[in-house]
Amino acid sequence: MLKDYYSILGVAEDASPAEIKLQYQKLLLIHHPDKQQQKQPGQPPAHELIPLQEIMEAWECLRMPAQREFYDSSLKAMKLRANGQVNDDIDLDDMEYDEESSVYTSPCRCSGEYIISEDELELGVDTVVCSTCSLIVRIHYEVADEDDN
Ligand SMILES: [Zn+2]
């Protein structure tokens, strides 16, 4: 399950890199346990503190444009799935695998394609939006290595 880094940071999904950075720095300041002693304006009560690790994880993911783009598409698919808007189910075994780019593809009826990368599969993404239309498929696959950290 992907975490929603945007809601952790409290920024819009289309926030600019500068906005994200500013918000990250602000959160670090007000959510840092060491700063709880000295009262800061806008400081949340202790039970509302966001773990620093989560703030940093969100920042590490969103600060790099390529990584953010990848994360965005995964997040979008996850949200669509949460809303139950899945049009079809396909089996990973039925998809074409491209060794060079490590992606699985499957044709959509609109002549677009469903594309999912191994990286996304490893993240636990199993829902893909067509590259051309708005149809969504859920991909079924066996998880080879159960690792919950
Ligand atoms: Zn399509």
TrEMBL record:
Q: Does the keyword Metal-binding apply?
A: yes
| Domain J residues, every copy | 4-75
The record's section on Pfam families has:
DnaJ (PF00226), Zn_ribbon_CSL (PF05207)
For this chain, one GO molecular function annotation is: ferrous iron binding
In terms of SUPFAM superfamilies, this protein maps to: Chaperone J-domain, CSL zinc finger
**UniProt keyword terms in alphabetical order:** Iron, Metal-binding, Zinc
Q: Which InterPro entries match?
A: DnaJ_domain, DPH_MB_dom, DPH_MB_sf, J_dom_sf
Domain DPH-type MB, chain residue ranges per copy: 86-142
Tell me, in a sentence or two, what this protein's role is.
Required for the first step of diphthamide biosynthesis, the transfer of 3-amino-3-carboxypropyl from S-adenosyl-L-methionine to a histidine residue. Diphthamide is a post-translational modification of histidine which occurs in elongation factor 2.
Q: Which family does it belong to?
A: Belongs to the DPH4 family.
Mind telling me what this protein is named?
A: Diphthamide biosynthesis protein 4
What is the scientific name of the source organism? Podila minutissima
